[in-house]
């Protein structure tokens, strides 16, 4: 009995340790979310300070995404050479520099440079956090632990929205002077320096991925890490399994993404790209990046619009918690399918509500009833996204690729994800001036409907499978 109790206590200790290091890695997701969401409350300040038009403002907002594409692409390859943890540490430093620089910028060019640096950090963290978590988590809990990434992203967005709202309220508006003679919108960026510092310091205390250690020949260190994660006996067995899996392959290369027999890109790579792109084509980041602008466009005040962002953030966190409870019980594919159907329906409702807006004194305005319908449908859309595509896409990208191409596969999928994000973000102000909010949300509803077909035809379930079992086709 005593031995059995000791075993259970040791197992519980290991589970807590795994949870702790996954949470530390997921701070990268928190900063990803914060850095993405903080721009939402600063659009008016950027326009006023930099005298930019709608296209210029769109580029100021979207410029970070170019850095994200670069960071995501190179992080996967560099992580195969230097390690997952090492790349996360570098991204933490970039987060710090970007947060400081974005707040002190005196013009659009300087601002864009610092935002691109932040984007590189976001891109690197976006692919390295799920990769790291998937490589230290046991198969039976991998979905739940990988979903922490999306909880962290949404928590970062929520805290950014809450911080923006509080700072704007303290100052009177985002463009008003707050502390030490600096405008409130600048402080919105500087707040991020605190979690970035915590991320950097916490990363110094977590181990490197055991799969990376074995891939570069450091078997003994990998066994020590795996013993901490799984216990001595299971750790040695897992180290041998990883070593045998990697022994069949050569050093990772982008060429591995192409089938040497057919000369075509492996199907699994196209599925990863499809998952990454569809997650953006449904328009979720328009809500996250332009939420304040969106609601002000149909008659809400700046304060009310920022408060709606806070509500959406809270809904998102609740949805992610639901996803954590379901992803390892019912699987990835059912969640993706249900989310696609839900998003398509709610986006159609939002598009219809916005189509009824009328001009009052030169400003668009919704009736009280349609305003409530638009608000409820938009938050239902956010809920459907965050219980499905939000977390599940990152879970699947972190686990679906074979060991040989995990870094390269994540790099390519991450590149396409951020390029799609850039296109959607850049195009929204243009669509707003052209086809209007109803037209824009109609486009997003169309892509949500297309994603239903993609999930049914292309996506294969990965629940409960060991990473060493993942195949190219």
Using brief descriptors, characterize the structure shown.
single chain; 473 residues; mainly alpha; Growth Hormone, Chain: A; globular
Give me the secondary-structure topology.
Layout: H1 2-37, H2 43-50, H3 54-82, H4 84-104, H5 108-136, H6 142-171, H7 184-190, H8 193-203, H9 210-215, H10 219-230, H11 232-247, H12 267-281, H13 284-297, H14 302-326, H15 332-355, E1 358-360, E2 363-365, H16 368-386, H17 389-399, H18 406-434, H19 436-458
Antiparallel strand pairs: 1-2
Helix pairs in contact: 1-4, 1-5, 1-6, 1-8, 3-4, 3-5, 3-18, 4-5, 4-7, 4-8, 5-6, 5-17, 5-18, 6-7, 6-14, 6-17, 10-11, 12-17, 12-18, 12-19, 13-14, 14-16, 15-16, 15-17, 15-19, 18-19
Task: Give me a quick take on this structure.
The protein is mainly alpha-helical and 473 residues long.
What would your notes on this structure say?
77% of the residues lie in helices and 1% in strands. It is mostly helical and 473 residues long. It has a single domain (2-206, 249-469), classed as Growth Hormone, Chain: A, CATH 1.20.1250.20. A two-stranded antiparallel ribbon has the order 1-2.
Distance between the termini: 47 Å
Q: Could you give the order of strands across the largest sheet?
A: 1-2
Secondary structure: number of strands? 2
What CATH calls the topology is: Growth Hormone, Chain: A
How would you spell out the order of helices and strands? HHHHHHHHHHHHHHHEEHHHH
What is the name of the CATH class?
Answer: Mainly Alpha
Question: How many H/I helices?
Answer: 19
Mean pLDDT: 78
Dominant shape: globular
């Amino acid at each position: 009995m005593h031995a059995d109790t000791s075993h259970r206590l040791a197992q519980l200790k290991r589970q807590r340790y795994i949870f702790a290091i996954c949470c530390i890695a997921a701070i990268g997701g928190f900063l990803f979310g914060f850095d993405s969401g903080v721009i939402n409350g600063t659009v008016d300040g950027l326009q006023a300070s930099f005298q930019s038009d709608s296209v210029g403002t769109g580029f100021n907002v979207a410029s970070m995404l170019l850095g994200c594409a670069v960071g995501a692409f190179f992080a996967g390859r560099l992580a195969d050479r230097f390690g997952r943890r090492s790349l996360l540490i570098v991204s933490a430093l970039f987060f710090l520099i970007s947060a400081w620089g974005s707040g002190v910028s005196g013009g659009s060019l300087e601002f864009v440079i610092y935002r691109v640096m932040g984007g590189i950090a976001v891109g690197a963290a976006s692919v390295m956090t799920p990769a790291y978590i998937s490589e230290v988590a046991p198969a039976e809990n991998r979905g739940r632990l990988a979903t922490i990434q999306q909880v962290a992203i949404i928590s970062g967005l929520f805290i950014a929205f809450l911080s923006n709202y509080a700072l704007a309220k303290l100052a009177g508006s985002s463009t008003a002077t707050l502390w030490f003679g600096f405008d409130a919108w600048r402080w919105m960026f500087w707040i991020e320096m605190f979690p970035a510092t915590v991320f950097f310091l916490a990363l110094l205390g977590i181990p490197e991925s055991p799969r990376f250690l074995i891939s570069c020949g450091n078997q003994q260190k990998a066994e020590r890490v795996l013993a901490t994660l799984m216990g001595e006996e299971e750790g040695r067995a897992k180290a041998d399994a990883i070593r045998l899996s990697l022994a069949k392959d050569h050093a990772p290369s982008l060429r591995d993404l192409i089938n040497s027999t057919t000369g075509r890109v492996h199907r699994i790579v196209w599925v990863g790209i499809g998952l990454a792109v569809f997650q953006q084509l449904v328009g979720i980041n328009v809500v996250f990046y332009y939420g304040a602008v969106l609601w002000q466009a149909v008659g809400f005040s700046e304060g009310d619009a920022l408060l709606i962002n806070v509500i959406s953030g809270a809904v998102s966190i609740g949805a992610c918690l639901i996803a954590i409870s379901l992803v390892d019980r019912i699987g990835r594919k059912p969640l993706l399918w249900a989310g696609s159907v839900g998003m398509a329906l709610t986006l159609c409702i939002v598009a219809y509500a916005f189509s009824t807006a009328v001009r009052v004194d030169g400003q668009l305005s919704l009736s009280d009833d349609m305003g409530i319908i638009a608000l409820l449908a938009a938050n239902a859309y956010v809920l459907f996204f965050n219980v499905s595509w939000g977390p599940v896409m990152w879970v699947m990208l972190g686990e679906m690729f074979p060991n040989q191409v995990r870094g390269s596969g994540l790099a390519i999928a991450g590149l396409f994800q951020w390029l799609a994000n850039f296109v959607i973000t850049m195009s929204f102000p243009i669509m707003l001036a052209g086809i209007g909010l109803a037209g824009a949300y109609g486009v997003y509803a169309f892509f949500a409907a297309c994603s239903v077909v993609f999930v049914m035809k292309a996506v294969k379930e990965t629940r409960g499978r060991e990473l060493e079992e993942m195949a190219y086709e």
